[in-house]
Specification:
The protein is mainly α and 137 residues long. The chain has five helices and no strands. The longest helix has 37 residues. It starts with a helix and ends with a helix.
Length: 137
C-alpha cells in the first residue's frame, strides 16, 4: 500500500470518527444554544428555542421545560435586583415572580425526577429560594 493511500485511509477514518462524535453531541446543541442565548440576554430567542425543544418528545421536552424554568428564575432575579426607582417593580409583583419560578422548578422536578437535568433543577431552585430570602430582607 502506498503512502498516499495510507494517508487517505487515515484521513477518512479520522473524518468518520469526528462525524460520529459530533453526531452524538448534536442532541445537546439546541439546549446549549438556547442557554447561551439566555445568558447573553437574548431572552426572546432563548424562549423560542426552549419552546422548540418542548415540542419534541422525550428528554428534549424536559430540556425545554428546564430551560423555561431558568428563564423564569432569571426574570425574577433581574427584577429583584433592579435599583432604579422608575424601573423597579412593586414588591408584591416581584414576590409573585419568585413564586411562579419556584412553581415551575417544583413541577419540573416532580414530573421529571429521573431526567438528566433534575439535579441541576434542584440546585437552581435552591438558588432561587436563596435569592428570594435575600429579597425579602
Amino acid at each position: 500500500m502506498s503512502r498516499t493511500a495510507r494517508s487517505l485511509r487515515r484521513l477518512a477514518f479520522v473524518t468518520a470518527l469526528f462525524g460520529a462524535v459530533t453526531m452524538s453531541f448534536a442532541a445537546d446543541d439546541d439546549f446549549e444554544l438556547a442557554e447561551a442565548l439566555y445568558r447573553r440576554g437574548y431572552l426572546d430567542l432563548a424562549e423560542e428555542k426552549f419552546n422548540e425543544l418542548i415540542a419534541q418528545k422525550g428528554d428534549r421536552q424536559g430540556d425545554g421545560e428546564f430551560g423555561l424554568a431558568l428563564l423564569k428564575r432569571y426574570e425574577a432575579m433581574k427584577d429583584a435586583g433592579e435599583t432604579a426607582e422608575k424601573r423597579r417593580k412593586p414588591y408584591d409583583v416581584v414576590m409573585k415572580e419568585f413564586e411562579d419560578a419556584d412553581g415551575v422548578f417544583a413541577g419540573f422536578i416532580k414530573d421529571n425526577a429521573s431526567h438528566k437535568r433534575a439535579l441541576d433543577a434542584k440546585l437552581e431552585r435552591a438558588r432561587l429560594l436563596q435569592e428570594r430570602a435575600k429579597y425579602q430582607l
